[in-house]
Every structure is written in structure tokens, then in C-alpha cells.
Design brief:
mainly beta; Neuraminidase; 24 strands; 9% helix; 6-blade_b-propeller_TolB-like; PQQ-dependent sugar dehydrogenase; Quinoprot_gluc/sorb_DH_b-prop; Glc/Sorbosone_DH
């Protein structure tokens, strides 16, 4: 009897030591939280709208007035690349989304979305340029005639793993457009990188991918899953998983299908509900996915730049990636309105502000 007791005790101690070792090992188990530091990298910007990490190890940014620049992440020095002469910045409009070709080192193409006046009508178009090492050349219009407005432009771009270009468009201040499948406002559109329409889009000959959107300003692929952040009206800002040919409800549904009228509409119109919604609204903008070990407490999280509530949010996802388990707030009221963010290959995070006066790039890294 005593031998079994001694054996059990030794076994338990050995098991504890093994488990403790595994939990402390940075290669497995739960890592301790990293201590973060934040600092201004670049300032004197004017309404920056897009920031992304380029394959050339530079930060690429757009400013609403029409300027595209590359920023050295070590020094913060911004080098102008190109200024689009036909951009018209009105209200929240102007030069907005940008994305680089996934094979940029061999196919140096830059895709941008911006507003301009077309025969006196405020309009949005998507244009592809080639980067020659110094500036942008050879513009090719991929999409045009997208309704624009001083508000609700959406206009975030993302390229999928199978190299399709996705474009968000708000309702351009006319809510009924979002449910009209023949109107490109209030939609997420999908095209090939040459501007042609994929054969497997939901409607033959149409760029439409999903509809019923009010003002989606964040877009990121995590594998082949597409997440979007979207501005609500007076309630229900949303984070959505975008699905082919699904209706996201606006203006008939705000947030979840949780009223009798909404439930009836949702059942009849193939409505997809958000994975999270905020009431009161916070004004969510750019979104990205954190998958690095550098900041272990942020791993497997969406990071969301927030305008009205002036903060960075960490949305910790469940293992399946279809639910938000925990939300943590960072830098609230520290830098003002936050528009977008980018993540470097080593896990540093770069945030752009949208205050309109001395806007900045903020670098967040491990202390």
C-alpha cells in the first residue's frame, strides 16, 4: 500500500514538472504577455486613409488629398511616390483604399480607389498602376461609375489568396442603393486583377459579391475567410464574415435579426448576421489580423482602428474564427481618431490617425 502511495506521489510530481516546463516553453503552451511600447513614427500627415506593409519593407500610405507615399519604418521618413491629379476630396471622400499585388517583387502593381468628378457627378473608380521603382505609371481603370458621396464611401481593398480584388463600397448616402443588386453602391465587389469579371461571381457579368452594406471601411483576409468592419447608423456597428451572394441587411436590418420586422426580412432575404455589433456606435474603420508570437496576447485576434471612440480594439477570436470571445481596448483618447493599421512581418503594429491636423503614424512594438 505504501509503495503505491509513494509511486503515485512521484508520478504526480513528475507530471507537474513536465507540465510546468511545457507551459513556460516559448515554443508551446501559453506565453506571458509582452510589455508594449507606443511612439510617434511620422507626423504632419493630412487625413491618411490607408496604411499597408509593402514587400519592399516600407509602409505605403494614402492621404485623402491624393498623395501616395512610402514611409521608412526605421526612421519615419515619408517619401512621396505619386499624387493623383484628378482626385477630388469632398467631406470623407478623396483618395481612399490601396493594395499592392501579392507578387509585387515581380509584378509591381498598385491598386487604388478614389473619388473624382465625372462630368460633374461625384464618382468612384478603381485604378491599377505600375510602380517603376520611383513613381506610378501606366494607369488602367479597372472599375468606374461607382456612386460616391461626402459620406458612406466604404472603399477598402483586399486581394484574396486566389488573386481576386475585393472592393467595399458604402451606400453613398442613399440607403436604398444597398438592396439594389444593379447598383454598385452598398456592395462588396469582386473582380480579377485585370478588371475582368470572374465567371464564378454570383450574378453572371456582375461584379457583385455581397450586398446590403451601409459603410464598410475595414477588410482583411485570414486564409480564405474575409472579415469586414462596418459603420452602423445610430446603432449596431458591425464586424462581419463576408460570404458569397449574402445580404447583410442594410437598411432593413441593423446588426442582428432581433426584432420581429428584421426577423421576417432576414428569413426571406438570405441575411447574414454579424459576428459582433456595438451599440452605441464606435465608428470602426481599418481592420487587420494579428498572428505573430511577438505580442502573444494579441495572437489570433482582429485589430480594429476606431474613429469616434478613438482607440485600438483587440477582438480575440475563438478557435474556429467565427466568434469574438474577448475585447480589449488600447490607447483610448491618446492619439485621437484611428483610421487604419498595418502589421509588419516581425509583428510590429503601425496605426494611422485621422484627426485632420498633424496626423500621425504610431508604432506599437514590444518594449
Amino acid at each position: 500500500m505504501k509503495k503505491w502511495t509513494i509511486f503515485a506521489a512521484i508520478f504526480c510530481v513528475a507530471l507537474f514538472i513536465t507540465c510546468k516546463k511545457n507551459s513556460d516553453d516559448t515554443g508551446s503552451g501559453t506565453q506571458p504577455d509582452a510589455t508594449l511600447t507606443d511612439a510617434v513614427l511620422t507626423q504632419n500627415l493630412s487625413f491618411p486613409w490607408e496604411i499597408l506593409w509593402g514587400p519592399d519593407n516600407k509602409l505605403w500610405i494614402t492621404e485623402r488629398g491624393g498623395k501616395i507615399s512610402r514611409v521608412d519604418p526605421a526612421t519615419g521618413v515619408a517619401t512621396p511616390v505619386f499624387t493623383l491629379s484628378d482626385v477630388v476630396s469632398q467631406g470623407e471622400g478623396g483618395l481612399l483604399g490601396m493594395v499592392l499585388h501579392p507578387d509585387f517583387s515581380t509584378i509591381p502593381e498598385v491598386f487604388v480607389a478614389y473619388n473624382y468628378n465625372k462630368a460633374g457627378v461625384y464618382t468612384k473608380k478603381i485604378v491599377k498602376f505600375t510602380y517603376n521603382g520611383t513613381t506610378l505609371v501606366n494607369p488602367v481603370v479597372l472599375l468606374d461609375n461607382i456612386p460616391a458621396s461626402t459620406t458612406h464611401n466604404g472603399t477598402r481593398l483586399a486581394i484574396s489568396p486566389d488573386k481576386k480584388l475585393f472592393v467595399t463600397s458604402g451606400d453613398a448616402s442613399v440607403s436604398s442603393r444597398a438592396q439594389d443588386k444593379t447598383n454598385s453602391a452598398g456592395k462588396i465587389q469582386r473582380i480579377n486583377l485585370d478588371g475582368s469579371i470572374p465567371a464564378d461571381n454570383p450574378v453572371a457579368g456582375s461584379t457583385l459579391w455581397s450586398y446590403g452594406h451601409r459603410n464598410p471601411q475595414g477588410l482583411v483576409f485570414v486564409g480564405d475567410r474575409l472579415y469586414s468592419s462596418e459603420h452602423g447608423n445610430t446603432t449596431d456597428d458591425e464586424v462581419n464574415i463576408i460570404q458569397k451572394d449574402r445580404n447583410f441587411g442594410w437598411p432593413n436590418v441593423e446588426g442582428f435579426c432581433n426584432t420581429t420586422t428584421e426577423q421576417t426580412f432576414c428569413a426571406a432575404n438570405n441575411v447574414a448576421e454579424p459576428i459582433f455589433a456595438w451599440t452605441p456606435t464606435i465608428a470602426p474603420s481599418g481592420i487587420d489580423f494579428y498572428s505573430h508570437n511577438s505580442i502573444p496576447q494579441w495572437k489570433n485576434s482582429l485589430l480594429l482602428a476606431v474613429l469616434k471612440d478613438q482607440e485600438l480594439l483587440q477582438l480575440k477570436l475563438n478557435t474556429a474564427g467565427d466568434k469574438v470571445e474577448v475585447i480589449n481596448t488600447f490607447y483610448k483618447n491618446t492619439y485621437g481618431r484611428m483610421r487604419d493599421l498595418a502589421i509588419s512581418p516581425i509583428g510590429d503594429v503601425y496605426i494611422i490617425t485621422s484627426n485632420g491636423s498633424n496626423d500621425k503614424i504610431i508604432k506599437v512594438s514590444v518594449k
